[in-house]
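In response to the reviewer comment on reproducibility (Comment 2.3), we provide here a single inverse folding case reported in full, input and output, so that an independent group could reproduce the run without further information from us. The structure tokens appear first.
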């Protein structure tokens, strides 16, 4: 099995554990957004604020914060960008667990990054 197929299989087998302290990052296709609402960083649950503040992205610029209703329950999406213009959408559970990290690209003039 080549490395790409092996990685894809591992990603598909990733599960979200909201009950315990253990989690794995989910495959991009594992989350289906049903609705989203723009909120302020200060409106995030304290666990999410703390998790972001302790993450490798804490020094990145926050472009947008959203409360997202998904088929997996409520999540909080932080869209972040660094000085190299690397751009990620980070999805946190209400308990502050990073459940999905999606790298995005954006072209010049694309303010929405999508």
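Designed residues, in position order:
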């Amino acid at each position: 099995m080549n490395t790409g197929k092996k990685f894809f299989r591992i990603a598909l087998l990733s599960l979200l554990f909201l009950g315990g302290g253990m989690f794995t990052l989910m495959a991009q296709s594992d989350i289906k957004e049903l609705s989203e609402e723009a909120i302020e960083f200060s409106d995030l649950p304290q666990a999410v604020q703390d998790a972001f503040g302790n993450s490798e992205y804490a020094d990145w610029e926050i472009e947008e914060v959203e409360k997202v209703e998904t088929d997996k329950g409520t999540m909080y999406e932080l869209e972040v960008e660094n000085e190299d213009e690397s751009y990620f959408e980070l999805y946190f559970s209400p308990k502050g667990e990073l459940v999905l990290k999606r790298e995005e690209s954006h072209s010049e003039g694309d303010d929405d990054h999508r």
